[in-house]
Amino acid sequence: MIIYNPKDWLHAVFSFHRSETIKKLYPFLFFMAIYSWAIAFFEIEYLKLSEQSWLRNIPSMHSLLGFVLSILLVFRTNTAYDRWWEGRKLWGQLTNTSRNLALRIESLLPINDKVNRSFYKKSIPLFANTLRDHLQSSRTRFMLDEKDHPAFAQLDDSKHGPNQVAAMLFKRTNILYKEGIISGDQFILLNNELLAFADICGACERIKNTPIPFTYTSFIKKFISVYVLTLPYGFVFSLGYFVVPAVVFAFYVLTSLEMIAEEIEDPFGSDLNDLPLSKMANNIHKHVGELIH
Amino acid sequence: MIIYNPKDWLHAVFSFHRSETIKKLYPFLFFMAIYSWAIAFFEIEYLKLSEQSWLRNIPSMHSLLGFVLSILLVFRTNTAYDRWWEGRKLWGQLTNTSRNLALRIESLLPINDKVNRSFYKKSIPLFANTLRDHLQSSRTRFMLDEKDHPAFAQLDDSKHGPNQVAAMLFKRTNILYKEGIISGDQFILLNNELLAFADICGACERIKNTPIPFTYTSFIKKFISVYVLTLPYGFVFSLGYFVVPAVVFAFYVLTSLEMIAEEIEDPFGSDLNDLPLSKMANNIHKHVGELIH
Amino acid sequence: MIIYNPKDWLHAVFSFHRSETIKKLYPFLFFMAIYSWAIAFFEIEYLKLSEQSWLRNIPSMHSLLGFVLSILLVFRTNTAYDRWWEGRKLWGQLTNTSRNLALRIESLLPINDKVNRSFYKKSIPLFANTLRDHLQSSRTRFMLDEKDHPAFAQLDDSKHGPNQVAAMLFKRTNILYKEGIISGDQFILLNNELLAFADICGACERIKNTPIPFTYTSFIKKFISVYVLTLPYGFVFSLGYFVVPAVVFAFYVLTSLEMIAEEIEDPFGSDLNDLPLSKMANNIHKHVGELIH
Amino acid sequence: MIIYNPKDWLHAVFSFHRSETIKKLYPFLFFMAIYSWAIAFFEIEYLKLSEQSWLRNIPSMHSLLGFVLSILLVFRTNTAYDRWWEGRKLWGQLTNTSRNLALRIESLLPINDKVNRSFYKKSIPLFANTLRDHLQSSRTRFMLDEKDHPAFAQLDDSKHGPNQVAAMLFKRTNILYKEGIISGDQFILLNNELLAFADICGACERIKNTPIPFTYTSFIKKFISVYVLTLPYGFVFSLGYFVVPAVVFAFYVLTSLEMIAEEIEDPFGSDLNDLPLSKMANNIHKHVGELIH
Amino acid sequence: MIIYNPKDWLHAVFSFHRSETIKKLYPFLFFMAIYSWAIAFFEIEYLKLSEQSWLRNIPSMHSLLGFVLSILLVFRTNTAYDRWWEGRKLWGQLTNTSRNLALRIESLLPINDKVNRSFYKKSIPLFANTLRDHLQSSRTRFMLDEKDHPAFAQLDDSKHGPNQVAAMLFKRTNILYKEGIISGDQFILLNNELLAFADICGACERIKNTPIPFTYTSFIKKFISVYVLTLPYGFVFSLGYFVVPAVVFAFYVLTSLEMIAEEIEDPFGSDLNDLPLSKMANNIHKHVGELIH
Known about the structure:
The structure is a homopentamer. By secondary structure, the first copy, chain A, is mostly helical. In chain A, 75% of the residues lie in helices and 0% in strands. Chain A has helices spanning 9-13, 20-47, 58-108, 114-136, 138-141, 161-178, 184-209, 214-239, 243-265, 277-291. In chain A, helix 2 runs antiparallel to helix 9 (243-265), helix 3 (58-108) runs antiparallel to helix 4 and helix 4 packs antiparallel against helix 10 (277-291). At the D-E interface, helix 3, helix 6, helix 7, helix 8 and helix 9 of D face helix 1, helix 2, helix 3, helix 7 and helix 8 of E. Chains A, B, C, D, E: Its main location: membrane. Chains A, B, C, D, E: It is a multi-pass membrane protein. Chains A, B, C, D, E: It is found in: Cell membrane. Chains A, B, C, D, E: Belongs to the anion channel-forming bestrophin (TC 1.A.46) family.
C-alpha cells in the first residue's frame, strides 16, 4: 500500500510509473489509437461519406447509453471500494482483538507464569500470520468454485490453518479456567476475544472466495467493449482525426474505472493497492510483544 | 457459483455459452432485430416520411426519460446485489458459528464423553443441511403469499426443519448444564452460538420469502418494455437501417440489468450465480469433523 | 403481499388489474391526455406559432431540470424501500425472538409445569398480535402529530397494548427466577429476548408514526406537478399530436415513482404491497405451538 | 412535526401557507423574477443581440455543470435526511430504554418499596426532559466551536444536565445492589439500560454540535448562487421573456433542495419539520407512569 | 471546526477569507483564466477557424464524459464525508465511554478511596489526550507505508502511547477486582468500557493510516486535469471570449469537489474543517472531573 499526500496533485497526475492501471493499459491505448485512426482514415478519405450518412447519428445512441454505463461503473467502483474497506476494517479489528487479548493475558496471568505468558506471546501473532498465508493461497480463493480443482486435491488433507491456531488458543484458555488460574468472569472476557478471531477469519474468507457475480462483471465488460469499439464510427463525422485522442481518452476513463474496481475488490492480493497484510501482522507481533512481559 | 479471474477480459467478453442472461435473451434480441428492421423498412420505403415529420423528434422524449430509467436500473441491480451479499454474509456467519460451536464443544466436553461429542459432530452440520433444503423448497418461498397454495396443504403438517434441529441442540446443551457437565458461564457461551443459528435461519427466510414489492418490479418491467418498443420509431430518421443494431444493443443493455437483478436477488436458488449452498454445507461438515474428535 | 415469479415478464407487464398504482392513476392519465391534446390543438390550429416562437425552446429547461427530478425520485423510492425493508427485518426479528423464547422456555421449564408452559404458549404469540393491532390503528400513526386529535381523546385512557404484554411476560419470568425455577444465568438469557420484544415494538412505532418530513414530500409533489403540466407547451413544436402519448407516458413514469414510494414507505398499512402482518403473526403462533409442549 | 396523508397530492401541492421553505423564498423568487426580466429586456430591446452572439451559447456550460449540481444537491438532501432519521432513531431508543427500565424496576423492586419506585417514576422521564432542554440550548450547539463564546462563560459553571441525571440514576441503582434489594444479575440488566441513556445523549450531542463541514456547505451555496444568477443571460436567446418563469422555477427547485437540507439536518431545532421532542418526552412520562405503580 | 448558521447564505457565499479551498485555488484559477484566454485569442484572431473545423465538436466528448466525472466526484466527496463522520462518531464514543467509566468509578469505589479515585480522574482524560497526540503524529500516518521511513527509526523504540494508557487502566481495574473492592459483575461492566477504549483507538488509526487507494485518487486527478485543460479548445467556438469565465468556473467546481474530499477524508489533521480533537479532549477532562469526586 502506498501512503501518499492526497494534496500533492503533481505527483498524482504524473505518476505513470507507479500506477499499475495505466501501465497495463498502454498496449490497449495504443491499439485504440490505431483502430480509431484507421476508421477515421477509411471514412474520410475512401468513403467520403456525406453529411447525410446515417452513420453520422450513431453518437446519439452513445449518449443515450453513456449515462447508464457511467453510473454503472461508478457504482461498480464503490462496491469494490466497500469490499476493500471492509477488508481493512477486519484487519483493524484483528489488530484490536490481538491487543486486547494481550492486555488481558498480561494482567490476568500471575507474573511468574512464564510458560503461559510465552505461549500467548507467540500464539496471538501466529494467528495473524496464519490468516495472511491462508488468504493469499489460491486454494482459499477457489474454495467455493463449482469446478473441480485437482491441483488442490493433495492439499485437501492438510487442515485449515487459522482454525487450528484458534482451537489451540481456545483449549489453552479453557485449561487455565479449569485449573482455576482465571475465574469464570475472566474466562468470558477472554472468550469474547477468541470468538472475534474466528469471526474475522470467516469474514476475510468471504471477501476472498466470493467475487461479485460473474454475470454482473461479464455484462459490464461486454458493455464497455461494444461501447468503446463503436465509438469512432459516428464521431469521425464531428471530430475528424481528433477522434483518435478523444476515443483513446474515453477508453482510458471507462476501462480504468473497471480496472480499479478489479484491483481493489480483492484486498488480500498482492497488487500495489492491496492491504499490507505482512506489515499489519508485524505490527501485531510488535504490539503483543510490548504488552505481554 | 463461478470463481473467475476478474482481470481476464477476453474470457468475460466472449463467454456467451456460460452467461445465462444473454442465452435467455437470444430469442428476444432476434425479435427486436426483426421488429426494428420492419419499422425502418416501413417508414423509409413506404411512408417516405419527410424531415418535418413529428415522428422524427420522439427521441427527445427517450432522452428525457432515459436518465430516470438508467438510474432506476442501476439502483435495482444494487439493491439485488445487497440481498445477494447479505445472503452470503449469513452463510458465512453460519460457517463461523458452526466452527465456534465445534471449537467449544471440543474443549468443554470431557475427552471420553463419546456420546455427546458424536451428537454435536452430527447435529451441527445437520443444521446447515436442513437450512439449505428449507431455503430451496418452494414452500418456504410462498410462506407469506396472500394466495392459497393447496399443493402445500398436505406438507403443512410436517414441521419446520431448521427449528427442530435448533430445538434438539438447545435441549441437549441444557441437559449438559443440568447434569453439571458444563458450568453456567460455559452454558451462556454455548447459548449465544445456538441463538445465532436461529437468527441466521430467520434472516435467510426473510430474503427468500420477501421479494421486492410487486408494484416496483412490475413498474420497471412496464417502463423498459414501452421504452424499448417505442425506440425505433423516432431513431429511424437519424440512424436509418443502423437502427437495427442500435436498438438491439440498447435492448440488451437495459433488459440485462433487470435480468441480472432478478437472478441475484434470490441468492438461494439454483441459478448459475446463486450461492453454492451445498458446497458451503459440505465445508461446514468437513471443518466440524476436523475440530471435534 | 404478492409472491411472484420475478422472471415472468409477461405477467408483470400486463398485470394492470392487480397493480394498484396504475389503477389509481387512470383518471389522471386520461386528464393528461385531454389536457395535452387541448394544448396541441390550440397551439397548432389556432395560434399557428412559427418556428421562431420562444415557446419552442421551453424543453431546454425541462431537460436541465429533468435530471434533478429523476435522481430525486429514484432516491425517494429507495428511501421508502429502506423503510419497508427495515419493517420486514423487524418482523423477521420478532419471529426469531418468539421462536428463541419458545425454544428456551421449552427446555428450561420442568416438563410437568403445565401452568407456566401454557402461559408462555399463549403470551408469546399474543405479543405479535397486539403489535399488529397497535401498528394498524390510526392512533399510533398520529401519536406525534402537532395537531390535537379529539377523536383519540377518549382512547387515551386505555393503555399501550404491546407494553402491557411485555410487562406481563417480564413479571412472570421474574417470578420464575425468584421462585428458583430458573437460575440467574437462564434469567439473563430470557431477559435478552424480552428486551428484544420492546425494542422491536419501538422501532416499528418509529416507522409508523414518523413519515419523511412534510417539506420534502410536499416539494417533490410540487416539482412533479409543475414539471408535467408545463411539459406539453414546448414539446408540441417538436412532437405535434404525438405530444399526447409522450406526455401521458412521462406523467405515468414520474408520478408512479412517487406513488410507489408513498405506498411502500409505510409497510404496516393495508396496501397490496404492505407486509402480511396477520400471516406473520399466525406463523409465530404456529411455530410457538410446535416448540412448547 | 406534521403527520400528513402522503397520498393527498392536492394538499401537498397547494400547502404554501404551511411549508416554510417556500414562504422564506418568496422575496428571493420575486427578486429573481425582476432580475431575469431586466436582463431579458436589456438583451432583447437594447442590445438586440444577433443569433451569432457568443452569449447565446452560455447554456451549454449550464447543462455541463447542471448535472454535478443536481447530483450534489440530492446527495446533500440525503445526508441531511440521514441525520434527521438518526436523531429520530435515537429518541426512539430513548423511549424504548425508558420503557424497559420502568418495566424492570416495576418487577424487580418489592411492591411496598414506595420510595424507590417513586424515585424511578420521576427520574426516568426527567432524563428525557433534561436531554430535550440540553439539545435545544445554543450552548450545546457551540460546544465545539473554535471561537470564544463569552456569552456562555457564566453558564460554564453549571454542570451538564443529562450527565447529572444519569449519575443520579446510576448511584441509586448501585445502592439497591449494595443493599441486596437487587441481585448481581439484575444489576447487570439495569446497568445496560443506564449505559444506553448516556450513549443516546452523546449521539444526540454529536448531531447537534457537528454540522456538515463548513467548506462543503459554503461551496454548495456559492455554486448555486453563481449558477442561478448566470442562468438568464444565455437563455434569453432561446426563451425570450419566458426566461422569467423558467429561471424563477429553476431557482425555486435548486435552492429548495438546499433549504430542505438545512432545515432537517438539525433535527433538534424548532423548525416545523424538526422532531417533536416535547411530545416524545411527554409520551415517555406517560408510559413510565403506566408501568411503575 | 467552525460552527455556523447553515441558513446564513450571505456569509457562506462571501466567506472567501475563511474557506481555505478557494484560497488555495486562487493561483490556479488565475492560471486557468490566462490559459483559456490565450487559447481563445489564438483560435479566434490567428487561426480564424471556420465553422466547419473539427475542433468545434470536441465539447460533445466533454459532455459524454462530463457525466462520469461529475458522479465520480460526488461519490468521492461522500466517501470522504463518511470517513469524517466516522471519525466524529468515534470521538463521540470516546466521550461517552469516558463519561460512563467515570460514572461507574464514582459509584463503585468507596467514598474514602482517594487514591484510586484520583488515579481514574487523571487516567481517563489522559487516554483522550494520548490518542490525540498519537493521531496527529506523522509516524501514525505512515505506519503501513511500503517505503522505509528512516526518520521514524529512532522513534520505533518508543512504545504505542494509547496502548500503554489502556494497559495501565486495565491492570489497575484488575487489581481492584483481585483485592475485592469491586465484584465480578462490576468487573465485567468496567471491562466493557476499557475494551471500547482500545477499539476506538484502533478504528481511529485505521482512518488515519489508510487513505483511499492511490490508484483511485490518482485516476481522479488525471481525469480532472485532462478534462479541464482540454475544455477551452472546443468551447471557444461557441462561447468566444466568454470561454474564460466559463472554464474558470468549471475548473473551480470540479477541483473544489476533489479538494473538499482531500480535506475532510483525514478528520484528524489540522485543517480548518478537521475535528477539534483538543476541544473534545478538554471536554472529556472537564466532564470526568465533574463526575468523579
